[in-house]
Amino acid sequence: MNSNITSMELVWGGEEIAKLIGRSRRITFHLLEKGELPAKKVGGRWVAERSKLIAFFMETAA
Q: Where are the domains of the chain?
């Protein structure tokens, strides 16, 4: 896979994740810390794949 495509697919930082999922920073960080979102901590920073976050919310909304 092309690394540019991969890097565009990643959402770095809790604030960016919060914007993508439409939740407050506080709620998002709570969900991240509890392991309730499909994300990992890399070098002390949260990172998630955009498609996995979207798929996760599509499943929970169904």
A: 3-61
Tell me the per-residue pLDDT of 4-52, one tens digit each, with 9 for 90 and over.
555 579 999 999 999 999 999 999 999 999 999 999 999 999 999 999 9
* Whether 30 contacts 20, CB under 8 Å: no
Contact 32/46 with Cβ under 8 angstroms?
A: yes
29-41 pLDDT per residue, tens = 999 999 999 999 9
Rounded distance, CA 13 to CA 47, Å? 6
Structural contact between residues 32 and 17, judged by C-beta atoms closer than 8 angstroms: yes
CA distance 6 to 62: 27
Backbone angles phi, psi at 45, to 5 degrees: -125, 140
Q: Other CB atoms closer than 10 Å to residue 37's CB: what's the count?
A: 22
